[in-house]
Structures are given as structure tokens and as C-alpha cells.
Amino acid sequence: MNDIIVGVSGSVAAYKAVEIVRKLNKKENNVIVVMTKAATKFVSALTFQTVSNNSVFTPRHFFEGVHSKQKDEQISLHISLAQRASLILLVPATANIIAKIANGICDDLLTNVVIATKAKLLIAPAMNENMYTNSIVQENIERLKKRGCKIISPVIGDLTCGKQGMGHLASVKTIVEAVLNH
Ligand SMILES: Cc1cc2nc3c(=O)[nH]c(=O)nc-3n(C[C@H](O)[C@H](O)[C@H](O)COP(=O)(O)O)c2cc1C
Hints:
Elements: E1 2-8, H1 14-26, E2 29-35, H2 39-42, H3 45-52, E3 56-57, E4 65-68, E5 73-76, H4 77-84, E6 87-93, H5 95-102, H6 109-116, E7 120-125, H7 129-133, H8 135-146, E8 150-151, E9 155-158, E10 164-168, H9 172-180
Parallel strand pairs: 1-2, 1-6, 2-3, 6-7, 7-8
Antiparallel strand pairs: 4-5, 9-10
The structure holds flavin mononucleotide.
Flavin mononucleotide binds near residues 9, 12, 38 and 95.
């Protein structure tokens, strides 16, 4: 069974991550959800806990140690999660988390898991068109691509501002298939 970590950050599109977790969980994967603080404003941890049948981790868990039975030693939660992940999917990925990961900033549980892992990183951005086309965001995305991350590009669609534009999260189907192809 594969351990897939789904990192959810603070976008309205976070509700779509619920369906993605549900679909991945059906496919013999062990899905572990890690949420940013902002993500918890959009969807509750309880919802992800229910669809993943697993504990959900939020920033408040960051400083809690975990016991590794195999090695009989204490290791930090972020190292433990980083080691067990066979793949990490960031969905939806905000401009903020993309910037942090592209620049090695690790100031919460999710960003520490990402920097500590050797697992493949898939990133599905979702944001307003002006945010997505901002050259800083594009430079950060290019930087992540060069480092081997797979970007699941957003599409043109409805945006939170009420307009249509680029930055709408890729479809649930596209994202699930991208994960299963890895
Ligand atoms: C209603 C609302 C919707 C938002 N939607 C997005 C979004 O789709 N994409 C994005 O990059 N930021 C969005 N933001 C801004 C992020 O929530 C904000 O940058 C936050 O600091 C992200 O933190 P995180 O990356 O740690 O989750 C939204 C904010 C609000 C209040």
C-alpha cells in the first residue's frame, strides 16, 4: 500500500481536495492529509479525517514527537511523515505555499514535510488569474519544475472573484490520474 500525503493549503478550492482524497483512498492507497492553518479556514480536518480514514495533521501537531517502533527512538512528526510518503500531492497549492517551497522556507508542518522528503512532489495550483500570471509566481513554478516537481497546471474557469480566468484548479479527474500515473 502506498502512503500518499495530500497537502492542502488555503484556497476556496480546498473542498475539491476532499473528493480527490476520497478517490485516492479507494485505490488501495493510504492517504494522509496535512493541512496548513489557512486550509483549516476553508474545510474542516474532520471532513478529511472521514474521507481518508486516517488522522489529519494540522500545524498544531508540528511540535508533537512521535515514537518510531522500529528504531525505538523518538523522531519528529515531519520527518516521520516525510520518510513514509511515496508521493506528496499539494492540492490546492496557493501562491504562498508555492513561494515557500520554491525558496526553501519551512515554517509549518506541511512545508517541513516537503523539505524533508525524497518523495515525488506533485503540485496543483489554484488562484486568481492575476496571482497566477504574476511573474513572481511563474518564476517560483519554473524553479520547482527545474527541481523535478510536477506541476498539474490550472485551467481557465470560474474564479473566486466571480470572473472567468486562468488559475482554476485542474479537474479532480486530471489530478487523480496524475497521481495514479506516478
Ligand atoms: C476567501 C479567500 C480565498 C482565497 N483563495 C486563494 C486561492 O485560491 N489561491 C491562493 O493562492 N490564495 C488564496 N487565498 C489567500 C491565502 O489563503 C493566503 O495567501 C494564505 O496565507 C495562504 O496560506 P497557506 O499557503 O499557508 O495555506 C484566499 C484567501 C481568502 C480569504
